[in-house]
Amino acid sequence: MNKTSWSTEHLRQLKELTNHKVIFDGYEFVWLSKIDGEWQRQCIVSFNNYNKPMSWIYFTVARWDKEYKQRSESYFNEMIKELEVDVKIKEISNEYCKKTKQKVNEIKILKPSITNKEIADILEVSIRTVERHLK
Description:
The chain is mainly alpha-helical. It is built from five helices and three strands. It folds into two domains: 1-77, no CATH class; 95-135. Helix 2 runs antiparallel to helix 3. The chain starts with 7 loop residues before the first helix and ends with a helix.
């Protein structure tokens, strides 16, 4: 399935049927959707009758709902992975037979985005000690 360019918050709004409507502007039917509390034209094409935009709404709402669920699922999977890494880091910090330098390097390998201050707080050492071990 192709990922849309909508943000996750906009997808959450778009997957709701009540945030869509078809109006008659006096000449043609127009599909509008409500994003961030504002009704906007959803499709540049105008329609001769209301059946086609209604079918498009049902089709796209189903697609947006599916993508929203996939994004939510991937968010939770990433959260679980991060929690597992945090548990491993705590286990490393509690190993008394390892030297601080080895702990610092293992933590940095597990979580490259972690800051020196966070490592220092976990290991209860100074930031300078962490910086020295990472050189």
